[in-house]
Amino acid sequence: MAITLLNPEGLPKIDVYRQVSVATGSRLVFVAGQVAWDAEGVTVGEGDLAAQVERAYLNVGTALAAAGGSFEDVAKLTAYVVDWTPDKMPLVLEGIARAAAELGVTPMAPASLIGVAALDVPEHLVEVEAIAVLD
User: Fold this and answer.
1) Which residue among 26, 88, 89, 116 is least crowded, i.e. fewest CB within 10 A of its CB?
2) Distance (Å) of CA 94 to CA 11, 12, 25, 55, 57
3) Residue-by-residue DSSP string for 1-23
């Protein structure tokens, strides 16, 4: 593996991600922000944040696989959520858990969740981008 995940002493231990990733690989993979589109460009889970998070993470997984990687190679994740409020966190975590179960991995890379006013189209509620490092 090209990625080692750490939770250093002196920083809080967060259950859903690690604070630091150390990359030792030689190939960088930048995954464009993925939304809740299926392969035909149809929005999945309109109005359902958990379903859209799940689909966005599955799309990131598909993109990583095309580059020869997986979530185990991710050094950094960023999620953009429309009209973010902390009460939406259980839906985000539900969507991640469902995608993780389907992919057979647990995305634990350092992550940022950023609230935004809008995304590319009104029906999209979340967008997820990734940076991975491969050997």
Assistant:
1) 26
2) 25, 22, 31, 12, 12
3) --EEEE--TTS---TT--SEEEE
The three-state secondary structure class of 95 is: helix
Whole-angstrom Cα distance, residue 11 to residue 19? 8
Question: Where are any strands of DSSP class E within the chain?
Answer: 3-6, 20-23, 27-34, 74-82, 111-116, 126-134
Q: What is the pLDDT of residues 97-124, one digit of tens each?
A: 999 999 999 889 999 999 999 999 999 9
| pLDDT greater than 80 at residue 1 | no
Summarize pLDDT for 51-98 with one digit per residue, the tens. 999 999 999 999 999 999 999 999 999 999 999 999 999 999 999 999
| CA-closest candidate to residue 109, choices 24, 23, 9, 12 | 23
Name the pairing type of β-strands 20-23 and 111-116: unpaired
CA gyration radius, the chain = 14
